[in-house]
Every structure is written in structure tokens, then in C-alpha cells.
Design goal:
DUF6596; Serine Threonine Protein Phosphatase 5, Tetratricopeptide repeat; Rna Polymerase Sigma Factor, Chain: A; about 70% helix; about 425 residues; mainly alpha; Arc Repressor Mutant, subunit A
């Protein structure tokens, strides 16, 4: 195996095993700092040794063993005056631990730890992206549009707070779950979005490892809370979005817009499962349950994935669902997305008027400029469209999206 193949193998193992290794170390040693540092050192050792020794038959087991040894070495150095019993406990046993909760899954416990309400929402997302998603600090900093040092400090403070406050490593008890799950859903949604359309240069435009992990955790939450409509809604939303993944980026690395995608490449099994969940929630709504944000977004995606051709899309239903969502969440991004759908019903001029009203709040958001550019193009206002495409390209961080926007701009001609 060549050095290039070995490094590709290490990258694959990192995507597949990072969260599991960090979670198992956190369970054993009860310290996120120790877990992260030991996992990072184990992967560094793999980078050094595997090109010469070859990739081991079970890379995950090799990394887990190496990480455990490195964690023990660190704790021995830090507690070298402790009694021998404590050292033996580190070597031979896991020691006392918090109750595991209804589902025995290390990564689910880890995400509940990272998403504790004692931490600010922005910090929860960053910490989860690092500890569960395995993103580097620079990648997370780009996602939050902050300096790398700032993000590093934010993550370090979060880990210190978890340690100082003795935040337990467990799934909350049944009575605590409803208050905690909304924050976890918000974080899982953002983790999924980072995989669906990764931010920053130098990263793959799509991170299927992140989308797969977000879906896996959402499934566990669904098993934990089978009657929670928003858990079902988020899982359905993820499934219907993930179903389109293979059609979203061309062989040349360019983003493929919904109206240009090969719908035959969509995953029918994921679509069927997502539609089933949406139907369940529609039945609950008919019985009086009030749908939340994720359920409405899932319903919108169900309309899109029900159409065999973009021309078959029921845009009136999409707009009606966005109207319902705007009443629940009148955020500028939701209003922007509604305008995109409204353009198919009322025309680009009406949609552009709605989009232009968002300039004060969304002028730094690349999708705002990309939407304006497309509407201006459809109205034949090429010079203004070109300027809007330039603004979108300057703000976009995803290479596939930049390639798509550049092509659409260049199609306007000189």
C-alpha cells in the first residue's frame, strides 16, 4: 500500500472512528480534554507508524488501544503521587460511572454531555462538531465565521466548564429529557447541515460521515422518544435530504441545483422512510397536534421528493407550508426560502421585492446574494445579476457551491 493509500485509509478511519473513540475514552476517564488529546495522539501515531508498518487488520481497535494507553500515561503523569489502587483501576477497569440511561450508546451520551443547557447554544454546537463530528478547530471556526484562536478558546472553556460543574456523562432521566432534547435536536440539525454542505476551503464539499452520524443519533433519539413529533420530524428531514446527496454534486465537483438533479439517482428507500414519518406527523396534526419547525421542514421536503420532475412540484403547497413556518419562526432565512418558492407561483419580480427587504439582516449571507442573482437573471437584469453572483461567490465557502455560482455568472456573458 502506497503512502497516499495509507493516508487515505487514516482519513477514512478518522471519519468512521473518531466519535466512538472519544466517547469510549470519555466514558472511561470522565474527562473530555483527556479523551480528545489521547484520541488525537493515537491518530498522530497512526500517521507516523502505519506508512512503515502497514494499516492494521482492525484499525479502530488499534487506535482505541493506543488512545487508552496514551490517556493512562497522561493521567499517571498528572497523578503520579496517587495511590496504586487508583492506577490499577485505570489499567484494569473502567471504575465507577454515571447511570447509562435508557439507551446504552457512548456517542449519544457524549452528545447529551456536549449539549448540556449550562452551555450556550453556540458553544454546544462547536463542542459537538469537535468531539462528535471530529471537525478540526479551523473548520469549526470557518463555520462560525470567527478566528481560529477564538474558537479554540471557546471549546476549551466549554470542556473546563463540563469538568468543573461535574456535568454527567449520561442520557438524562425520563423526566429531564423533554427539556433537554430540543437543544440536542438543534445541534444535530447543524451537524447534519455541516455534512450536507460543508463550510470552508480545503474540505470536501459534502461530508457523508457527518450526515450519517447525525442520522444515526436521530434514530437513537427516535427510539428513546417515539412520541416526540419534532424528533420524528428532524429524522424525516434528514432522510429526505440525505436521499438526494449523490445527485447534489457533479463528477466535476460542482453543486447541482434541485431543478437540475437526476431524480433517478435519489435513494428511494430513504425517501419512502421519510415520507412514512411525514405521514405519521400529518395524521397527528389532523388529530390536533401542533407541528413544530422540523416537522414543517420535513413536509416541505416531502413535497419536493414526491415530484418526479421539477415541473410537477406543488409549489402552492410548498408556499403554504412556508407560510405556516414563518408564523412559527419568522427568521430572515425562512423568509428568504419562502421567497424562492413564491417565485415559482408569483414570478421573480414579486419574489425579488421580498428578498430585497432582507438586505439589512442578510447582506453577509451568501445565499441571500445567490438568490437575488438568480431572480435578477430571470428578470433579464444581467449586470445586476453578475454583481450579485460576485457577492455570493465572495461569501461562499463551499467549493462545489462556488463552482456552481461561477458557472451561472459566466453564463450571463460579458
Amino acid at each position: 500500500m502506497s503512502a497516499i493509500d495509507v493516508h487515505e485509509a487514516i482519513g477514512l478511519v478518522h471519519r468512521e472512528e473518531w466519535a466512538r473513540i472519544v466517547a469510549s475514552l470519555t466514558k472511561r476517564f470522565g474527562d473530555l480534554d483527556v479523551a480528545e488529546e489521547a484520541a488525537a495522539e493515537a491518530f498522530a501515531a497512526a500517521v507516523e507508524r502505519w506508512p512503515a508498518d502497514g494499516v492494521p487488520p482492525n484499525p479502530g481497535a488499534w487506535l482505541t488501544t493506543s488512545a487508552n494507553r496514551k490517556a493512562i500515561d497522561r493521567l499517571r503523569r498528572e497523578h503520579k503521587r496517587d495511590d496504586k489502587h487508583r492506577e490499577a483501576q485505570m489499567v484494569y477497569g473502567d471504575g465507577p460511572s454515571e447511570p447509562l440511561g435508557a439507551i446504552d450508546d457512548d456517542r449519544l451520551r457524549l452528545i447529551f454531555t456536549c449539549c448540556h443547557p449550562a452551555l450556550a447554544m453556540e458553544t454546544r454546537v462547536a463542542l459537538t462538531l469537535r468531539m462528535v463530528g471530529g471537525l478540526s478547530v479551523p473548520e469549526i471556526a470557518r463555520a462560525f465565521l470567527v478566528q481560529e484562536t477564538t474558537m479554540g478558546q471557546r471549546i476549551s472553556r466549554a470542556k473546563s466548564k463540563i469538568k468543573a460543574a461535574r456535568i454527567p456523562y449520561r442520557v438524562p432521566s425520563a423526566e429531564d429529557l423533554p427539556a433537554r432534547v430540543s437543544g440536542v435536536l438543534a445541534v444535530l440539525f447543524l451537524v447534519f447541515n455541516e455534512g450536507y454542505l460543508a463550510t470552508g476551503p480545503g474540505t470536501d464539499p459534502v461530508r457523508p460521515d457527518l450526515t450519517a452520524e447525525a442520522i444515526r443519533l436521530a434514530r437513537l433519539l427516535r427510539a428513546l422518544l417515539p412520541d416526540d413529533g419534532e424528533v420524528a420530524g428532524l429524522l424525516a428531514l434528514m432522510l429526505l435530504t440525505e436521499a438526494r446527496r449523490t445527485a447534489r454534486v457533479s463528477a466535476g465537483g460542482e453543486l447541482v441545483a434541485l431543478d437540475e438533479q437526476d431524480r433517478g439517482a435519489w435513494d428511494p428507500a430513504l425517501i419512502a422512510e421519510g415520507h412514512r414519518l411525514v405521514r405519521e406527523r400529518l395524521a397527528a396534526a389532523a388529530a390536533g397536534a401542533v407541528p413544530g419547525r422540523y416537522q414543517i421542514l420535513a413536509a416541505i421536503n416531502a413535497v419536493h421528493t414526491s415530484a418526479r420532475d421539477i415541473r410537477d412540484t406543488d409549489w402552492s403547497q410548498v408556499v403554504a407550508l412556508y407560510d405556516q413556518l414563518v408564523r412559527l419562526d419568522p427568521s430572515p432565512i425562512i423568509v428568504l426560502n419562502r421567497a424562492v418558492a413564491a417565485a415559482e407561483l408569483d414570478g421573480p419580480a414579486v419574489a425579488l421585492a421580498a428578498v430585497d427587504g432582507l438586505e439589512d439582516t442578510l447582506s453577509g449571507y451568501h445565499a441571500y446574494h445567490a438568490t437575488r442573482a438568480d431572480l435578477l437573471r430571470r428578470l433579464g437584469r444581467s449586470d445586476e445579476a453578475r454583481a450579485a453572483y460576485d457577492a455570493a461567490i465572495g461569501l461562499a465557502g463551499n467549493s462545489a457551491e462556488i463552482a456552481y455560482l461561477t458557472r451561472r455568472r459566466d453564463q450571463l456573458g460579458s
